[in-house]
Each structure stands twice: as structure tokens, then as C-alpha cells.
Amino acid sequence: MSCASSESPRRIALVDCNNFYVSCERVFAPQLAHRPVAVLSNNDGCVVARSEEVKALGIAMGTPFHEIRALVKSAGIAVYSSNYALYGDMSARVMQVLAQFTPRVEPYSIDEAFLHFTGWEDARLTEHAQHMVKTVRRWTGIPVSIGIAPSKVLAKVANRVAKQQRLPGGVCQLTDPALHPAILAQMPVGELWGIGKRWTQRLQALDIHTAQQLRDSDPSQLRARFGVVMQRLIYELRGVSCLDTEALTPPKQQLIASRSFGRPVTELTALQEAVASHVARAGVKLRRQGSVTQALVVFIQTNRFKQEAFPYHQAVTLRLPAPTADTGKLIGYAVMGVKALYRAGLRYKKAGVMLLNLAPAQQIQLDLLHPGDDERSRRRMQVVDQLNAKMGNGTLRFAREGWQQPWQMRQAKRSPAYTTKWEELPRV
DNA sequence: TCTGGGGTCCTAGGACCC
DNA sequence: TCTGGGGTCCTAGGACCC
Fold first, then answer.
1. CA A252 → C1' B7, Å?
2. Does the pTM of the predicted model rise above 0.70?
3. What is the DSSP string of A201-233?
4. Lookup: nucleotide whose C1' is closest to A112 CA
């Protein structure tokens, strides 16, 4: 196992946007401040973001929306469908502001980034971070919290402390090891970054209940039981940085595009349309990162929550004769895959595709019998992508994606794409 | 009626090779 | 009568994350 050898100790800040999706909605709807606000997952299925007021009402992350309809009404909760055009754009703005404070920004998710301040004076870090919090708020409208520590896992812990205890300026600095035991002893082991449900149960069975107890456990013993990931986590808790600190996000190795349907789908052609449109979305992502794919997985499934007479959940993997980034070719394979999977008489709930074995378009092995995408194909896809980027998604699409698309997901309460569509600019 | 979508890393075991 | 040992690659599945 390779952990950081000690030159100067690492200083890692985790910047996390508070209730990110809710905060994005509030930026353009100031009347929502201090009101309970919730944002739903795709298809308006589950609650995926909650304002503090909603958390106080006892609504858990991931609660199915239909379970809380009554409460939504009685408590006057403002509910929104997910608006990824807005959240993605706001995320990019926040990251851009953060980049002004250090060149080493490592985005981790849509609402989080690790920033590297190794070599800075500890005495100046809190103040510097507080300045970041203020600047992000002023320039984007998004509130953030920051945790600073010698490792990523401890930076996560610090961030949680900053949020929970509402520390001044939204910042918690845990660079002094003397502060760690008291805080880790208060923290249930299951709330650590990297410890999920299963591991929590297994750790508790070993009488390890708090983060401090895990920190004090024997790393090699726990490695034998849980694997190297757990060993690294223990070192991270001890302030020894073991996790990668890559500044560059490497290209994805696989891409998934899938959706639940707004209502059950029974027809083969409708399933093929839906899958074709998922392929088109995956294709855009594929080309954006300059990759080609060598294998395609298609899957369709019935409603897993329902007692169906015939629960059906099947996938087929298609190895492509030559690597490609051409949506047209991929759709051709995908609709064949759907046909092979399709059983008449079932009510399908969800379908999707995965692109696997991605490789850089520049470095593919050439095959005399199965040449890859030719120049015409590349230029065609380039035109499609550019046009859709300029005129809006779906402006130019493949006929196989269908026109009416009655299977589209529900999105009844979506706010406007305030920042990415001219027609939807906010009026002042 | 209604229950999201998109990722990563690690490990174990089988196939195959020398 | 006898039937090794070690390496690599691939895949499936399990764990985790937001």
C-alpha cells in the first residue's frame, strides 16, 4: 500500500455546496428563502435534495414522493422536478470561482470539490476559506461549507462538522491532530465517507461503533476482513493521506444512459425509440470526452417494486466489430438488442444502455476488415453535436428516437433553464 | 397511481499460457 | 503409476459514492 510519505503534511479542503439543488432553485426564486423546499429525482420519483426546513420535518433523503404528498400539502413544501440544465451550469460557475483561489481544484461531484493547499501556513487557512465561502456566495448565490484537514476522509469529517455546528463563516479546520479524537469519538462509524450500510453492520459486529474506534483498530487485521479500501480509510483517519489527489479528471471508462418511463410501455417500437434516445445521449457524452466504444449493453425491465406476474430484468451485451462513436451505428445495434430482449405482453418500466471498454478515439487499433468511423461519420456527428449545442438538445435527432415520445419521464414541476436558454431567462 | 440515474474500485475465480 | 507452479487477463459481483 502506498500512502503519502511526509514532505510537508497535506492540506486538503473539501468544498461542499449546502443543499445544492435547493440552493440553485432559491437563487432564481428568492421568495423560497426560509421556506421548506424539496427537489425530486428524475421522473419525479424520490426526494433527492432538501432544505433545512424539510430536513427538520423528518423527511429522509430518498423518500418516495408519493409517501409524503399529504405532508407536502399541510406543511406547504415547495416541490421541484430536477433541472439538470440549471444545476450543471451553476456547478460550473462555482468551480470556476474556486479555481481563483488555488490552481489545484479536483471536482468530485456536481456539488463538491477537493482543493489542495499543501504548503500553506495553517494559521491563514481558516481565514482564506472563509473568504472563499463569501466570494462563492456573492458571485453565484450558492452557500457552501468547507472542511480542511490532512486527508480527504478527515476533510469530509471537517466539512460535516462545519455544517452541523454552523461554524462561523461555514469553515472547520481540523489540521491540528489534537482536535481529532474528541470529534471522531462523537461520530458514528456509518457516517464516515466510504462506510456504507453493509460495512456498518459488519463493523458493529466487531464492536466498532465510532470513527475513533475505527481509527484505533488494527489496519492489517481489518484489511484481512474488508480489503485494502478499509485499510486506507483507517490511515486516512489517522491523518495519513492515502487517496489519490489527481488534479485532472481522467476520461470515463464506461457511460450509462437510462430512464424510467413516465408510464408503462408495452410496444416494441416504443421501447426501441426510448433506447435509441438513450443511445443518443450516451453518444454525446462519448464524443465530448473524445472516446470510442467497443461494447454496448442494452437492458429493459419491468417495475421492480410491483408484484408483476412476470418480473423481467434482462440485458444483452453486444461486442462491436469495430470501435465507434457514431450514434447512428450504435442505434442500429441497440434496436437489434431490444428486439432480442423484448417479450410481448409485459409492462416495461425502464430501459437503458451502457457503453463499455471506452478508449481514446486517437489510439484505437486499426482493423483492415472492420474499419472504424470514417471521416464522413465524424463530420456528421460533429454537425449534429454542434447544432444541438447551439440550438438546444433534440433540435436534430435520429428518426429512431421517435417524435411524440409518450414514454418520456414525468417532470411536472421543473423550473425554467434560467441560465442556459434564451427563452427562459429570468425577468426582473 | 406513485419508488432516480450515473459512476468507481476491488476481489475472487476461471481460462489460458509457459 | 503419474498429474507443478506461477503469471496474466478477463469477467462477474460486491461494496461504495453523490
1. 9
2. yes
3. HHHHHTT--BHHHHHTS-HHHHHHHH-HHHHHH
4. C18
